[in-house]
Amino acid sequence: MKKIRAAVIGCGIISGMHLDSIAALHEAELVAVCDIREERALEAAKMYHAKSYTDYHEMFENEVLDAVHICLPHYLHTVVAEDAFRAGIHVICEKPMSINYEDAVAAVDLAEQCNVKYAVIFQCRYNTPSILVKERILDGRLGKVKCGRTTLTWYRPNDYYGDSDWKGTWDKEGGGVIINQAIHSIDLANWFIDSTPIEVQSSLHNRNHPNMVVEDTAEGLVKYENGAILSFFAMNNYLRNEPIEIRLLCENGSAILSYDEAVITYNDGTVETVKNQPQKIVSYTGGADYWGTQHAVQIHQFYKALVGIEKLEISGKEALKTQRLICDIYKDCKLKEL
Ligand SMILES: NC(=O)c1ccc[n+]([C@@H]2O[C@H](COP(=O)([O-])OP(=O)(O)OC[C@H]3O[C@@H](n4cnc5c(N)ncnc54)[C@H](O)[C@@H]3O)[C@@H](O)[C@H]2O)c1
């Protein structure tokens, strides 16, 4: 079988997850890596036996590529994805799709026009507890979600923002704890509820990070077309990264997901519990546990879609639902204007 020729753009913190995943797949071969910081590109190229570039345009011109992984600061996601689409290259992009909704919609449209696949990373959907809860909602044992809440209490020191030239900024990160960290738990809740938000209220604050301007604390409420209500709370001011928690009250029972476990209690008193069983496709150990461990599973799904044996699951079009909600959360808040 002809291997899919892949490249990774952005060789920072998350890139190892993508590079190791590509290396583990028999459908793919890593051809090139790119980072404007040459030392990062060179290091990744050496480690994974690929060519190194500092300019992705040059890489697109010189290499025959089928797919690129975008692991860049948020404001570059749709810009680079669109250049790839125009070059006929499939894209798998890290979350979020974009720092605004309109650019994400335009990117989805362009991918369609160029007849290429566009995937967006939401790896937490592939955790065993997430899969079980979604199944139980769909098969009717839990039934529809009536009410949900998500809680994220994590730790990001001032240096996390101080050491980065894009994190903690409106123009390059597009926000703080919501668009970068809580996006995963909000995506899960939004996926479980599976209806259109009709009203979004939010309150965002920067309580303890004087060296950056975006929110480190957020709470709010989302009302959905089907009557469901979601409340969310997120903050980066805790002393450590606690497991995220999602609680759902459904037609026929309730579910509590806390990072590696789901406990479902049905209205008849029976209980179903599942622990996360991460599929150890890659040996990468640089990833933090609280990211979830299913990047490799989602990346493999993307490649299975590229070779035509599966339908792409988290496409750009699918990811737009959460992108829209995230953008509405920012729209309702005044912090940006302060
Ligand atoms: N899914 C997850 O759980 C998860 C976890 C961490 C990060 N992420 C996401 O991954 C993305 C990258 O985050 P990170 O923490 O690795 O950031 P990072 O700052 O560590 O890495 C970004 C890299 O991009 C490079 N870069 C910047 N502009 C470039 C350009 N024009 N061309 C080529 N390279 C360029 C930088 O030099 C840097 O090495 C973000 O979207 C982030 O939200 C996702």
Short overview:
The protein is of the alpha/beta class and 338 residues long.
What are the salient characteristics of this protein?
14 strands; alpha/beta; Dihydrodipicolinate Reductase, domain 2; binds nicotinamide-adenine-dinucleotide; 25% strand; Rossmann fold; 2 domains; 338 residues; 10 helices; 6-stranded parallel sheet
Secondary structure: elements and pairs:
Elements: E1 4-9, H1 15-24, E2 28-34, H2 38-48, E3 51-53, H3 56-62, E4 67-70, H4 77-86, E5 90-93, H5 101-113, E6 118-120, H6 128-138, E7 145-153, H7 158-162, H8 177-193, E8 197-205, E9 217-224, E10 229-235, E11 245-250, E12 253-258, E13 261-266, E14 271-275, H9 295-306, H10 316-331
Helix pairs in contact: 1-9, 4-5, 5-10, 8-10
Bound molecules: nicotinamide-adenine-dinucleotide.
Describe the model:
It is built from 10 helices and 14 strands. The protein is an alpha/beta fold. It folds into 2 domains: 4-123, NAD(P)-binding Rossmann-like Domain (Rossmann fold, 3-Layer(aba) Sandwich), CATH 3.40.50.720; 124-278 and 316-337, Dihydrodipicolinate Reductase, domain 2. The protein has an 8-stranded mixed sheet with strand order 8-9-10-7-11-12-13-14, with helices on one face. A 6-stranded parallel sheet has the order 3-2-1-4-5-6, with helices on both faces. Helix 1 (15-24) crosses helix 9, helix 4 (77-86) packs parallel to helix 5 and helix 5 (101-113) runs antiparallel to helix 10. The protein is globular, with a radius of gyration of 20 Å. The protein starts with a strand and ends in a 7-residue tail after the last helix.
